[in-house]
Every structure is written in C-alpha cells, then in structure tokens.
Amino acid sequence: MRSVMSQNRSKTKRSKAAQQRAQRSNGARGTTPRAGTGKAKVKPAKASDWIAGARLRTLPLAIAPVLIGVGAASVADGPGVWHPVRSVLCLAVALLLQIGVNYANDYSDGIRGTDAYRVGPSRLTGSGKARPRTVLAVALAFFALAAVAGLALVLLTQLWWVLLVGAAAIAAAWFYTGGKRPYGYYGLGEVFVFVFFGIVATAGTTYLLSGVINQEAWYGAVAAGLIACAVLMVNNIRDIQADRAAGKRTLAVLIGPIASRVVFCILLLLPFAILAILALFYSIAWLGFFALLLAVPACIITITAKTSKELILALQLTSFTGLAFAIALGSAFVF
After folding, report:
1. What is the pLDDT of residues 290-322, one digit of tens each?
2. Three-state SS across 165-218?
3. At a CB cut-off of 8 Å and minimum separation 6, what does 55 contact?
4. Which of 111, 123, 112, 132 is nearest to 246 (CA)?
5. Tens of pLDDT along 186-229?
6. Among the residues of 200-291, which ranges form H helices?
C-alpha cells in the first residue's frame, strides 16, 4: 500500500512539474493570450470597430502627396489649367490603398499572432472581434476599388504602362506584413513607404495630370516621403518591445529605442529644409513653417515619451504635420 501511495504522489509531482514547464514554454513562445482576452466571449465588431480598423489617423499620409502633386502639376501646366476628375481619382487611389493596407496589416499581423503582444489600440483580427476571412475580404475590396480608380485614370490618360506601377503599389501594400516573408518584418518598411507614399504618390500624381515630372514634384515627393517614414517610425517606436517579442524586426527594433527617436526627429524636420529651398521661389511656401507648431511638439513627446499613449499622440501630430505641410506647399505652387 505504501508503495502504491508513493508512486501516486510521484506521478502527481511529475504532472504538476510538466504543467509548469508547458506554461513557461508557452509564455516564452508568446502563446499566452493578451491580458484581458483569456477565454472570455468577445463581442462582434461594431461599425465603430471597423472605422477604427481603417486607422483614420493615417489617412493624411495619403492626402498629402496628392495635394503636393496637384500643386506641382499646376506649375507645369501654367495658371488656370485644372484636371479635377483626374485629381479626384488620384486622391481616391491613394486613400483606398491606405485603407486597404491598414486592413491587410490587421489581417496578416492577426493570423501571425503578432498582435498577441500589441500594446496599442486593439485590432479586429487579433482581438477576435472579426473573423480573419472577413477582414481579408474587406482589405481586398479596398484594393479592388483602388484598382478600379487607377484603371479609370489609365483610360483617361491612355498611359497603359501605369498599370504596372499600380500593380506594384498593391503588391507592396500586401507584402508589407503579408506573405511568407513580409518586408515589414525585416526593417524595410520605411524604404517602401518612402518610395510609394512619397515618390510614386507625389510624382505619379503630377505625371498623370501634366504628363511631366518637374523639380517641384521631386522636391515635394522627397518631403512627403520623409514625413510618411516619420509616421511609421513613431508607430514602430511604440511597438518596439511587442515587435521584438513577436519576432517582427522593424527598423526601430533593429537600431533600438534611442537611435529610433533621433531618426524620427531627423525624418520629421528634414522636410522643412526642403521647404526653405522652395520658399525662395514660392513665397507662400513660408506658411508651411507653421506646421512646426505640430512637428516640434511631436519630436519632444517622442524623445521623452514613456507610455504608448504619448507616442500615439506623437503619431497623430506627425500625421497632421504632413497634411499641414502639404496644404501650404501645394497652395504655394498653385498661387
């Protein structure tokens, strides 16, 4: 009898030890659910959740390069020449792609388990409020709408080769966090953001409207791209710890929090040096320096921030810096 009881106690101890090892292993692999989720029933996503999923604070990044591109086109075409339909279509493509990539990121990060570590606002897929397939379908719908708007532009301009650029933009939007080797997980996010939200969006708008890409478009494209990179950088600074735990190697993760904050300030303030050059030829462009009232606080907050809420505020200020900058520069080109 004593032998049986001893064996039972030994089995119980081994079982508890195995459970403890499994729990520690799960925690190390990041399989532990986010705090507050557990096994509790999650309410289905409401309209407000889907609107939040579109991440409206990022939309100024889509509007800014188009405004600059339209202004640069007015310089190329001369006063009094407008292309309202094509301008609206360019804006539609930019906005639809931005919303599409936001939902695509929500889907891809959610199914990878990256959002299990998330410290920012919860997402549709990661929180369980929406089915992954539904989020994917919404993302693809916005990509399709962007493609339709882009096709309309091609039909109006007869520039058929632009379809390749549009296809590349949609592919870049998807593979940012989608696919087997998403480039956003290997420190290349800022590179593609600079190219597509800076160069392609700005210079592309000018070309589709006027048929040329002038110096104003190139200068504006670089400025818009740098500010877009700053937005991505401050977003990734907020998520450094979570991304590192999830194995997402953003540029902020690779260079560390201190260097990331310095790089953010450089990205955000350098466009004002470009603005100073352009203001020598377009006097109204000096109004763009009022955007420093948003940019400087964003830099101060980012450098001193200790909480994610502070960095979210910095992100919002950075996004609106880009919009204010673009309104001033685009207006300077037009008037």
Report:
1. 999 999 999 999 999 999 999 999 999 999 999
2. HHHHHHHHHHHCCCCCCCHHHECCHHHHHHHHHHHHHHHHHHHHHHCCCCHHHH
3. 102
4. 112
5. 999 999 999 999 999 999 999 999 999 999 999 999 999 999 99
6. 201-210, 215-238, 240-246, 251-255, 257-279
- Compute CA distances 235 → 230, 262, 307, whole Å: 9, 14, 12
Domain ranges of the chain: 56-334
Beta bridge partners of 186: 249
Distance CA(246)–CA(240), nearest Å, equals: 10
User: Per the structure block, which two tokens stand in for 278?
Assistant: 């352009």
d(CA 278, CA 328): 11
* Residues 84, 275: Cα–Cα separation, whole Å: 26
What was the pLDDT predicted at 17?
46
Q: Residue 35 has what pLDDT?
A: 40
- Whether the Cβ atoms of residue 197 and residue 62 lie closer than 8 Å to each other: yes
Residue 79: phi and psi, rounded to 5, are: -65, 145
